[in-house]
Design a protein that fits this description.
Elements lengths: L1 H15 L2 E4 L3 E7 L2 E6 L2 E4 L5 E7 L3 E11 L5 E12 L2 H5 L5 H18 L3 H4 L2 H16 L3 E14 L9
Antiparallel strand pairs: 1-4, 2-3, 2-5, 6-7, 7-8
Helix pairs in contact: 3-5
Length: 170
């Protein structure tokens, strides 16, 4: 009960406060009455309570580990890949205003690039530096339309698996 009260007070404060602080590693946008009003850099910014909403995100380089993916390569090898992506926001308006679910976008862009290249190549190719360069290039191209810059996409775990297929006749 006390937690709910504190949460309610916090939400009320966010609605009525007349300023927004943007940290040095962030950028943001001001939405006034539902319309994009301004792109904002670090600092203290005025706010019209109730009329203004701020959207803020980190724009400096960050690193994110991706979940594992399993594929069967072109030469019929079952593989396990886990990647890491180094990224930064290049266009804050595209990133915050023109797209939704930013965390999902990063994953979708990276998973799609890895899948496309892994499924169309051999096990020997996937173990080369050329594979890493190709998945980075494809991810960069996909991410650009969302205001995201992929600096590097690299596999951190790459394993050839044994695949077992169980056939049941039930």
């Amino acid at each position: 009960m006390f937690d709910k009260l504190l949460e309610l007070i916090g939400e009320f404060w966010d609605t009525v406060k007349f300023f927004q602080i943007i940290m040095p590693y962030e950028k943001g946008v001001r939405i006034r009455k539902g319309v994009l009003h301004a792109v904002l850099g670090p600092g203290l910014h005025g706010k019209l309570p109730i009329l203004d909403e701020f959207m803020v995100d980190t724009v400096v380089q960050t690193t994110e580990f991706l979940a594992n993916q399993t594929f069967t390569t072109k030469d019929n090898h079952a593989i396990y890949i886990r990647g890491i992506v180094v990224k930064k926001v290049s266009n804050i308006v595209k990133w915050l205003v023109e797209s939704e679910d930013q965390e999902g976008i990063v994953k979708d862009v990276c998973y799609a690039a890895i899948a496309e290249v892994a499924l169309n190549n051999t096990w020997d190719y996937i173990r080369t530096e050329a594979f890493q360069q190709e998945i980075t290039t494809k991810a960069r191209k996909r991410a650009r339309k969302y205001g995201l810059k992929i600096i590097e996409l690299r596999p951190v775990e790459l394993v050839k698996l044994r695949a077992y297929r169980f056939v049941t006749g039930f």
